[in-house]
Amino acid sequence: IVGVLYWVTGSEQLWLARLVNALFWAIGGVAIYAIGKRFAGFWAVLTALAFYFFLPFSVIATRSFQPDPWMVMWVLLTAWAALRWSETRTWKWAILTGLVGGMTMLVKTFAGFFVGPILAAVVIQSLGWRRFWRTRQMWAMAGISLLPTVIYLLLNSQRSSDFFSFWVVSLSELILTTNFYADWLAMIKGLMSLGTVLAAVLGLCIARKPFRAVLLGGWIGYVLFGLVFPYQYTTHEYYHLMLVPLVALSLLPVLQTVFDLLGRQSLLWRLGASGIVLFASVYALWTARSVIYVQDYSLEPASWQRVGEDIPDGHAFIALTADYGMRLRYYGWRSTGAAWPSGSDLNLFSLAGNDAIDVQDYFAEATQGKDFFVVTALSELDAQPALKEILYGDYPLLVEGNGYLIFDLRE
Predict the structure, then answer these.
(1) Is residue 365 packed enough to be buried (19+ CB in 10 Å), middle (13-18) or exposed (0-12)?
(2) Measured distance between the N- and C-terminal CA atoms of the chain, rounded to whole angstroms
(3) Strand order of the sheet with strand 397-401?
(4) What's the pLDDT band for 167 if we cut at 50, 70, 90?
(5) Out of 85-89, 101-105, 161-165, which region has the weakest mean confidence (pLDDT)?
(6) Which residue, among 49, 71, 101, 22, has the nearest Cα to 281 in the 3D structure?
(7) CA dihedral (243, 246, 249, 252) positive or negative
(8) Which of 3, 46, 74, 353 would be 104's cystine partner, CB 3.0–4.6 Å?
(9) DSSP symbol at 161
(10) Handedness of CA 21, 24, 28, 33 (dihedral sign)
(11) Could you give the CA distance from residue 123 to residue 110 in angstroms, rounded to a whole number?
(12) Rounded to an integer, what distance in angstroms lies between the CA atom of residue 329 and that of residue 254?
């Protein structure tokens, strides 16, 4: 939906696509409210929602054109449906939970790390270990949830196999290093306070049933997700997006305890506490606004169009550029025949156990059939002296623009 709106409205109307993403995140907030009001009072839930909506990471990450905000919304709806099933034990809610869970994993298969543990924890808490395996409704929920994703993976078996082989198997040894866990904590600290996460874990310890089952399943999923994809957890912030609603929900028992104590205080102290929450919310929102405001991308469309115009038509080219050539493709209407690896890509190959590339041999292979070598990431070119020596030493510089270079590989 976001992609279609982005294409229809064009770059001058990005507010509409952002509005859709914001709508997804808002529906997730409605799900948090629907879950939280069963186990906490209004003010505790409202404070948790303030964290969910105004955390700078939450504001910034949900403006990106990715399926993750939509995935978070569906995970929260799945958790709400699972709770409704645990309260009613009816086939209607069992089927609905399965359908919502299936949609969640179809949006992004990684959501299974959260959907599976949450459903398993809720069912076990409701039925116990012995009845867990003998309940037809449980098998119906599991089967309906898995069916769409299984069909999709079977239809894309080769791509799924390659993805699993590289991103999971070859990088699995990272979990045996202490640096991985240190980087994981550093990533969380950069996204939100570690004290907030600690308070959320304490909230898990004092939560009531069956709310504790939902929280426990979510935390198990978050940890498993990190252990299966260790590289992404330390390099990609949006892989932690599910942590935002998980912390917001886990804070509810702690917030409810605080508000129960505040209820015994005088009006002056209650107003003071409300002012603190309001100040924290406004400060977080202003911080997010400041981060967005200082990043000015208004000149990028014209810059990339200029690069695209300077690349001769009808010729294949390789590029050392940002985003694997996506911006050049979107704004400049030119698709790269191949992308030269950046420094982070080379580091990733090394972590996966691959030998260091021979730049001469790799250059000869990568540029075969290409007429031009386009460089828009000049700092990356400086960081790869062997590549820079080949380009400047062996090939003429066809175009030297403002922030980009085009080498002629034909001579």
Answers:
(1) exposed
(2) 46
(3) 338-339, 317-320, 372-375, 404-408, 397-401
(4) low
(5) 161-165
(6) 49
(7) negative
(8) 74
(9) H
(10) positive
(11) 21
(12) 49
- Pick the residue with more confidence: 161 or 408? 408
| Distance from C-alpha of 386 to C-alpha of 373, rounded to nearest angstrom | 15
Q: How far apart are CA 29 and CA 16, in angstroms?
A: 20
Average pLDDT of span 215-235: 93
CA distance to 85, 105, 239, per residue, from 108 (Å): 23, 5, 12
| Predicted TM-score of the model (pTM) | 0.86
Task: State both tokens at 254.
Answer: 């702690």
Distance CA 59, CA 25 (A): 9
Structure tokens at 403: 């922030």
123-132 tens-digit pLDDT: 999 888 888 7
- CA distances in angstroms from 99 to 79, 86, 149, listed in the order given: 12, 16, 12
